[in-house]
Structures are given as C-alpha cells and as structure tokens.
Amino acid sequence: MTRAAVLCGVGGALPTIAVSNEELASRFDTSDQWIRTRTGIGNRHVIEPGRATSDLAVEAATEALAVAGRTAGPAPVDLVVLATSTPDRPCPATAPVVAHRLGLGTVPAFDVAAVCTGFLYALATAVSMVTAGLADRALVIGADTFSTILDPADRTTAAIFGDGAGAVVLRAGEADEPGALLGFDLGADGAGEDLITVRAGGSRQRASGEAAAEGDQWFAMQGGPVFTEAVLRMSESSRTLLERLGWTGGEPAKVVAHQANIRILRAVGEQLGLDEKQFVVNLDRVGNTVAGSIPLALRDAVADGDLASGQRVLLTAFGGGLTWGSAALVWPDLGRPAPTPPELP
C-alpha cells in the first residue's frame, strides 16, 4: 500500500481569561448585538500576563499526544511543525522550545508563518515529510496570541480575534485508512500583502532607518477586501480539491473552515452549494484564533460529537500573505475529549 500520513490525535488549549461581548461594550462604542451580527462571535480568550504562544502550544500538544497514545499506541514523535504569526521571540523559532518542553529530545522542529492559513501549510509540510519517509510520527501545532499585537484602541480587531492553540498528531500509515490525509490545495498571492499585516518590526521598516509610524506596530486588516478575497479563495480552493477527489453530491459531510467570521462561512457554503449545518462552528466561543483556528475547531467538534468516524471532512482556510488552502480526510475514531468552556452568557 501507498505510505500515507494518518491523523491519530487532536488537542486544544485556551487561556483562562475570557472576554465577553459585554465586557468589550464596556470599553468600546459597541454592543453584543453589533458584534454578533457582523461576526457571529460572543466570546474570546486572551493570554494571561507572563504567558506566551509556546505555553498554549505545549498544552494543546500535550492533549493531542495523549489522544494519539490511546488511539495509535505509544511511539516517539520525530518531527514538530508549529504554525504561528506570534512567536515567543522574532528569533529563534518557537517550535524547538515547544519540542524541548514536551521532552521530545532533539527532533527537527521549525515554525511556519502563513497567518490564518498557517496550520494547513504546516500540516501539508508534515504530511509530505511523513509520506517521504523522513518522519514516522509528527506533531503539528497551530498557536497564536494575537491579543499581544492588536491595537488597544481598535474595537473591530478586539472583537474578532482571540488567543488559542490546537494540535494534531500524524503517524505513518496507509492511504485507505480512516484519518489518512487524502490531498491538499495551497495558494498564495503576495500582491495582497498590505490587506493583512503588521507594518513595523521587520527588516523592511528597520532597514529604512526611520522610526515606525504611529500605529504601525499593531496588526491591521482591510475588512472589505479581506472578506471578498476570503470567500473567493476558500471557495475556489475547496472546489478544486473536491473535484480532484471526486467528492460530489453533497460531500464532504463536514467542513472545518478557518473560524474568521460567520458571514464568511455562510458565503463559502453558498458558493459550494453546501448546507450551513455541514460547517463546524466554534467561533462563537473562541473568536478567530488565527493558526489555532482549524485544529481547535477539530478538537471542539470531536468533543461536541459533531465529527464522527467515517465522515468525509474538508478543511479550508484563508489568511495574510495572501495565503489560502484546503485539505481533506476521512475522519478517524479518536474518542471524545472534554469540550472547551462554553460561551459566556
């Protein structure tokens, strides 16, 4: 049989500090209704003082490794790929620190930066290494703490983004097994680099010899164009992959898309001719957790009983870069972990 990468574990982590829409309304000129109508979000979590992205990554990975131990038996992890746009430090990468804290020894570990598409890029990288025989068991993590780079005065980004992490474990297996990653479609367009960005802090700004302009140290997003591009790119990428796999007639059974905005998810569903009930949604509880979005949604869907063994599942995302991508698999039996905290009243 063809060697394949098989998903055998999933985990997630959220900070303990929850921020409801009502709390945001006490700080900004906004309301619970305004936020829910435009985003579908009711709650998000922010990292505790003194903690960082690696802390959430370790927590999510620990749970995913425990699940993999139950479903696939104990085995050493020989690769760690971490998707993040908010590393602990600009240098070095955060993945080696995470691998060290997990006690994984001197395995190869590196970061992938593709913002909200980061997890799918990291997943594709790990799958390629497993299928090529360069790794037998890989840990793939998506983790971000966007609260650390948001403009404190910007109500829009404060309402949308939350901190969180998700992780999956892959093992070498066969292509016809449940959990085998069946295909990917990835893309990027650097012409849209200014639509989702942090302008200051990189070599471009530092090499200019000029101080960063006021506000350029914060994350910025052009909402209208981003909405249009997100719907277009996720729909096109999903359609390309579904056609390649021959999934027609209402397949996939479930779509786990990047949890950016409920209106984006609905628009993508309309473009693909899929029912809204086919979409996994947890953004009402956690907001947009960037690279953590898809794996955290997978983890919550398993906990909520929204993913069942044998279901065909499509993953799709869009993020800064611009970047986008899709992946597909038949969901394996992973059991049911405890759900993340419910949405605050």
TrEMBL record:
InterPro entries: ACP_syn_III_C, ACP_syn_III_N, FabH, Thiolase-like. Signal peptide: none annotated. GO terms for cellular component: cytoplasm. It holds the Pfam family ACP_syn_III. GO terms for biological process: fatty acid biosynthetic process; secondary metabolite biosynthetic process. Residues 242-331 form the Beta-ketoacyl-[acyl-carrier-protein] synthase III C-terminal domain. It is found in: Cytoplasm. Keywords: Acyltransferase, Cytoplasm, Fatty acid biosynthesis, Fatty acid metabolism, Lipid biosynthesis, Lipid metabolism, Multifunctional enzyme, Transferase. Residues 110-190 form the Beta-ketoacyl-[acyl-carrier-protein] synthase III N-terminal domain. It is an enzyme of class 2 (transferase). Residues 259-263 are annotated as: ACP-binding. It catalyses: malonyl-[ACP] + acetyl-CoA + H(+) = 3-oxobutanoyl-[ACP] + CO2 + CoA. Gene3D superfamilies: 3.40.47.10. The keyword Membrane does not apply. GO terms for molecular function: 3-oxoacyl-[acyl-carrier-protein] synthase activity; beta-ketoacyl-acyl-carrier-protein synthase III activity. Catalyzes the condensation reaction of fatty acid synthesis by the addition to an acyl acceptor of two carbons from malonyl-ACP. Catalyzes the first condensation reaction which initiates fatty acid synthesis and may therefore play a role in governing the total rate of fatty acid production. Possesses both acetoacetyl-ACP synthase and acetyl transacylase activities. Its substrate specificity determines the biosynthesis of branched-chain and/or straight-chain of fatty acids. The last Arg residue of the ACP-binding site is essential for the weak association between ACP/AcpP and FabH. Homodimer. This is Beta-ketoacyl-[acyl-carrier-protein] synthase III. It comes from Streptacidiphilus pinicola. The gene is fabH.
